[in-house]
Amino acid sequence: MGRCLSLTGEKKISIMKFVSARDSSGRGFTLVELLVVISVLGILLAFFVPTMISRVATNARRTATLQEMNVLREAIMGNPDLRVGGEAVGYGFKQDVGRLPRDLVELATRNPFEGIYAQRLYVGKETLPAWDPYIQKGWNGPYIREDGEMGYLYDAWGTEYRYWVENNETLGLMSAGPDGLFWGQPGAVKNDDIKVRF
């Protein structure tokens, strides 16, 4: 017979009843089961976390690039909504000089032959005319802040901005996007270019 416990001198109760009741109701996870669950979660996270981080980083860079392109557009075209005393004061490079910048460095300097700009070559490089307050024409910048490294020339992936040109008409600015290649260049497999219209 099973072992019995004497609670009083007269009554005997079997211990087996208490042991079996405790085993069925208070059973938890074993160490092996916990390790298996943690391992499965670790494998799933190893597959999904890098993809999610990559998407978040790409979206952050896309947002930063769009913001910078909008700042460049305003520097080039001006902001017609910027007024003082009812008069428009948000003029950009195009209205002041009478043309689009031949290179974005012209937004930061009137003389691209000096300092950090001296080594930068582009077609039509020239010293821009100084601002003439009587005729309201000439270079009245800087239109963009210079960081000392000409960072405004490049998108968040390090690719230089270009003008967006279609049918010999300049429509705006464009970035090559995450793949670093403009659509139509060799190796570009998808059109992920970012464009901002003037």
Nutshell version of this structure?
With 198 residues, the protein is α+β, with helices and mostly antiparallel strands. The protein has helices at residues 16-25, 31-77, 93-97; strands at residues 4-6, 12-14, 83-84, 87-88, 162-166, 169-175, 194-197. A hairpin with a 2-residue loop joins strand 5 (162-166) and strand 6.
Question: Would you kindly provide a written description of the structure presented here, covering whatever features stand out?
Answer:
The chain is α+β, with helices and mostly antiparallel strands. It has helices spanning 16-25, 31-77, 93-97, and strands spanning 4-6, 12-14, 83-84, 87-88, 162-166, 169-175, 194-197. 31% of the residues lie in helices and 13% in strands. The strands form three sheets. It has a three-stranded antiparallel β-sheet, covered by helices on one side. It has three helices and seven strands, in the order E-E-H-H-E-E-H-E-E-E. The radius of gyration is 35 Å and the shape is elongated. It starts with a strand and ends with a strand.
